[in-house]
Design brief:
Elements (H helix, E strand, L loop, with lengths): L3 H16 L6 H29 L3 H23 L8 H29 L2 E2 L2 H24 L10 H25 L16 H5 L5 H36 L5 H10 L1 H12 L3 H26 L13 H18 L3 E2 L1 H19 L2
Antiparallel strand pairs: 1-2
Helix pairs in contact: 1-2, 1-8, 2-3, 2-8, 2-10, 3-8, 3-11, 4-9, 4-10, 4-11, 4-13, 5-6, 5-11, 5-12, 6-11, 8-9, 10-11, 12-13
Length: 359
């Protein structure tokens, strides 16, 4: 294990403890940013060690769930603060994560995977099933609240919220069972002939159990540092957003981009190695986990939160979501894609980011 990957997460945690709740001068903000990116790179390394030990798709699930659990903790902490605008925080954060994963990560990895080999190849059965789960939970939790009539505004009633929460966690649990037990072969990478690839082909011999456990602990520390330092930097990001004349909601987009950096880099590494299926496992698994874990948690805590929970998307975001899902389905269904397909998904991410800055 490279030495820097051991101390970078610890350094990030120390910097987080030293700067939490404090305003940052310019020089300190630069140092915090450096610590954040060191933690990001270390998280990618440790995620790859774990993936080499447990195999795919379990390796992708570990990283996706770890990031999402910490992200949920950040959302709950911010919502409990009672500041203005927190009623839409969960919706904005989850939607930003959704657009980044299904357009940004998936598009980037198809683009990279096709760049060296002409075509990016993956398993359509597994990828299509994962995307179907994303469509379901996104529709239930982010689109339906806009059109229900039990509450005024884009809110669920308590019973509707409970149904959406139970349905979301049920869909995610069944997806994980399908991915890891019943149909694991649908979620492993394939070669040019469509045959499954061995984990050892990509990672070499599996690391020892001790090395994997050390990496698991350091991965958690690194991800806590990434999310926490993103929160510490948020006032500086807010000032930059104000100076640029962007709406405050754009801050959530920037933070989501930073929080999802470990997954993005890990997925890009898989794609460059020709294992695009691993990249799609990360992208769609993260999208589903972001909704399937966040909404049930907030539903359980909603009686204790001082602000209402507005989950329904506006018309512009619904259009972007529908476009993204339609393009994603057309891209995945054939089991192979060109760089053009990846570029289309990236353009949809660029459109989302641009419209978030210029609504």
């Amino acid at each position: 294990m490279a030495q820097w990957t051991t101390w970078a997460p610890v350094l990030g945690a120390v910097v987080l403890a030293a700067t939490w709740g404090r305003s940052l001068p310019g020089v300190v903000a630069v140092l915090v940013t450096a610590a954040l990116f060191g933690a990001v790179l270390a998280a990618v390394h440790h995620a790859e060690v774990i993936a080499a030990k447990v195999g795919e798709p379990l390796g992708s699930i570990v990283l996706a769930v770890a990031v999402t659990v910490i992200e949920v903790g950040l959302i709950v902490t911010l919502m409990a603060s009672g500041k203005d605008g927190v009623e839409t925080l969960a919706r904005d954060t989850v939607f930003a994560a959704l657009m980044i994963t299904i357009n940004g990560i998936a598009g980037l990895c198809i683009f990279l995977g096709a760049g060296r080999r002409g075509l990016a190849r993956f398993n359509p059965e597994g990828s299509a099933a994962a995307l179907a789960g994303v469509v379901t939970v996104a529709g239930l939790c982010l689109v339906l609240p806009t059109f229900t009539s039990a509450r005024s505004g884009p809110e669920f009633s308590p019973s509707q919220l409970a149904f959406a929460a139970i349905s979301s966690i049920g869909v995610y649990a069944m997806f994980v069972l399908t991915q890891t037990v019943r149909h694991r072969d649908f979620f492993v990478p394939v070669d040019r002939a469509g045959k499954p690839l061995d984990d050892e082909d990509a990672h070499g011999p599996a690391p020892s159990t001790r090395a994997a456990l050390v990496s698991l602990g350091l991965l958690v520390v690194a991800l806590v540092a990434v999310v926490g330092l993103a929160k510490v930097l948020s006032p500086s990001i807010e000032q930059a957003v104000d100076a640029a004349g962007f709406p405050q909601s754009f801050v959530g987009v920037v933070i989501a981009l930073v929080v999802l950096l470990p997954e993005t880099l890990a997925a890009a590494n898989y794609a460059r190695a020709g294992r695009v299926q691993n990249s799609l496992n990360l992208a769609y698994g993260s999208a589903m986990a972001s909704i399937g874990l966040t909404i049930p948690t907030l539903a359980a805590l909603s009686p204790f939160l001082s602000s209402p929970l507005e989950l329904g998307l506006g018309s512009m975001h619904i259009v972007l979501l529908v476009l993204s899902l339609v393009v994603g389905i057309l891209t995945i269904v054939q089991g192979r894609a060109t760089r053009f397909s990846g570029w289309i998904l990236l353009v949809l991410l660029f459109a989302y980011v641009f419209l978030a800055a210029n609504p």
